[in-house]
Amino acid sequence: MNLNSLKGYAETAKKPWSICLDERFSLIHRIRSNQCRLYSLGLGNDDNQFEISMANSGCEVHRFDPSIKSAHIQEGRHLWYHRLSIDWRDPNPAIAAHKLHSNTKKLGTILNEFGHQKIDVLKADVESAEWKILENLILEDVVEQIGQLVFEVHIHWPGFEVSGNDSTVVRYWYSLLRELELKDFRLFHTYKDLSKPQMFLKKEAFNASSCYTLSWVNTRWK
Question: Is the whole model's pTM more than 0.85, yes or no?
C-alpha cells in the first residue's frame, strides 16, 4: 500500500504519500510496464521524494509548481517540472490576454493541452485550495480520468472561496467526499500530521490535526 516495494524509494520523505499497489487495480501493473503517469500539484519547498521515487520506478511524472524559473524543465528520463498552477477555474480571458502565457489553469485544461487522457495518480498539496479543486474535478467529471487521488486536506479553516458557518462548511466538505464515494472511489489510507496545530475550523481540537493526507483508489480502474 506504499512505496516500500518500489525502486528508489527512500524513507527520508517528510510525510507518507501512500498509493495502492493492490494487484486488483491497474497501478502496479502499469508501473511494471512503465506506462503509469503521475501528476503532482504543489508549491516551492514541498518535499519531492515521492515524485523522484515514482520517476525512478518508470512512471511519467509531471510536477506543477508556479515557483520554478523556467516554463518546463526535464530532470532525467521520466520527471518534468512545469511552471503552472492548477486552479478550480481558468483565468479570465480579458485578464489573461494581457499576458503571453497564463500560469494558472484547470486540470482539465492541462490534460487537453498535454494530450493526456488519464492520470494514474494525482497528488495534491495545494495549501487549502484542495477543496475547490476537488469540487471542479467532480463537477467536470475529470475525476473519472484519475486512478488514485492522494490529497493533503486542511481543516483549520474553510479554505479558499469556501464560506458559511461551521455546519455549512462541514456539509460542503462531506458532499465532496460523498461524491467521490458515489463515483466508486474508496479511501484506503489516512495520515494525521501531528506536527500541525490541533485545530478544526479555527477552534482547538484535542487529539486531532489541522492537516490530513487522504488516499483514494478508483475501483472502476481494473
Answer: yes
The arithmetic mean of pLDDT across residues 5-15, rounded, is 50
The alpha helices in the chain, defined as continuous H runs, are 26-32, 49-56, 93-96, 107-114, 130-139, 166-182
Q: Do the strands 37-41 and 119-124 form a parallel or antiparallel pair, or are they unpaired?
A: parallel
Contact 33, 53 (CB under 8 A): no
CA distances from 210 to 149, 151, 161 (A): 19, 14, 18
Specify the pLDDT at position 10: 44
Q: Is the pLDDT higher at 63 or at 16?
A: 63
Give the gyration radius of the chain's Cα atoms. 17
Helices then strands, counting H and E runs in the chain, come out as 6, 12
Q: How far is CA 34 from the centre of its chain?
A: 21
pLDDT at 133: 95
| Residue percentage of the chain with pLDDT more than 90 | 71
Q: Are 58 and 77 in contact (CB under 8 A)?
A: no
**Residues 79-111: pLDDT tens digits?**
999 999 888 876 655 554 445 455 889 999 999
Instruction: Identify whether the C-beta of residue 113 lies closer than 8 Å to the C-beta of residue 79.
Output: no
Beta strands in 28-110 (DSSP E): 37-41, 60-64, 72-75, 79-82, 85-87, 104-106
Distance CA 145, CA 207 (A): 36
